[in-house]
Each structure stands twice: as C-alpha cells, then as structure tokens.
Write a structure and sequence with these properties.
The protein is α+β, with helices and mostly antiparallel strands. The protein folds into two domains: 3-81, 3-Layer(aba) Sandwich (Glutaredoxin), CATH 3.40.30.10; 88-195, Glutathione S-transferase Yfyf (Class Pi), Chain A, domain 2 (Up-down Bundle). It contains nine helices and four strands. It has helices spanning 12-24, 43-46, 67-77, 88-105, 111-120, 125-146, 158-172, 181-190, 194-197; strands at 3-7, 29-32, 56-59, 62-65. It has a four-stranded mixed beta sheet, with helices on one face. Helix 1 (12-24) packs parallel to helix 3.
Length: 209
Amino acid sequence: MSLVLHGYWRSSAAYRVRIALNLKGLDYAQITHDLRTGAQRDPAYAALNPQGRVPTLDADGLMLTQSLAIIEWLEETYPTPRLLPATANDRAIVRAMAQLVACDIHPLNNLADLQVLRSRLDADEDALNAWIALGFDALETMIERHGGTFAFGNNPSLADCCLIPQVASAHRFKVDLSAYPRIAAIADHCATLLPFSGAQPDHQADADQ
C-alpha cells in the first residue's frame, strides 16, 4: 500500500503520525503544507481534507484525517508491533493518556487556536501555560501509576506518540517541565530511539534551515 503523509514539520499532530509510522516500520512519502502561509487552506488541499488542517494520510486514495484516527487505522491495518495494549482495560488507559494530550493540552499550542485566544480573548502566556500545566500534572500522575520505560509500561504506545510531540511543544513555548520528572525521563529515553528521533521536527526535509 502506498502511504503519503500530508503534514508540516512543526505540526505536533503530524509529528504523532510520523512516530506511529516509524514505530510500525512503514515506508511513506511526505507532502508539506506551510501553516504559516495558509497553504492548508488552498482549495486543492481542502479537497483532500475539508477541515483544512494537517495531517492527512493518503492511503492509496483513502484520505484519513485527525491524528488519533489515523494512528488507530494504522493499528488495525498494520497490527504489529502493537501501539495499543492487549486488554480492554489497558487500552482505555492508553487512549485516555493520548486524548489528554490531544484534546486538553495540544489545542493551546495550536496556531489557529492561539490566534483566537490571543486576539479575541486577550489570553497572555502565563494564562496559557497555567492551563497547559494542568494537563501535564494529570499526565505525570497517570505515568506514575502506569508507566515504565514508556508512558504505559515498557513498550511504546499511542500514549508516547502523543506525549513526545507535546514535550517538544512545551520546550518551544518555554513551559517549565521541571515538575515532571517521569515525563522528562520518558522523553529523554525516546530521544535515543530512531523511530522517535527520525520523526523530530528538525529532522524533516521541510524544516527551517
């Protein structure tokens, strides 16, 4: 099957999918859409993704959107190595970790959302960072309960696909992560692994030089 990932080097959501593709050992091409110039709103791209956001995964003409849905599709289509645990209970915990990042923390680092928060609601950096910290507080506790070498146990999972890009965003937005030693330890460990390091934004062909 031919896989083409439409993304942008700095997009956290596209970063998640790159990690998942790499962990699965899948070959894929990439097409970039520069969010800073509004390329995602081009009519040709909107025909692929009506929301006009990245990522979109083109799987032999099947256009898949939303990073978590894409990764779940990858899990079902290419089940090994697994990114979700074997039991329903454990899968629910991993999905909760992933959704905590994708639904609660990440929107406050999203370019479109930030523009609205800053321009219409006068949100300053302290307010944004305080809200982000609430998510990291909860995630640190969940990792304390369920984590090991990775966010859940000792195998990489959907939770790590979401966690690592969010840590990168936190560093970019100068969020203090010193209160989260477990998150920091997992991020440091993942940085040594090729599926994660190869997905890093700065390692993408469209990254700023």
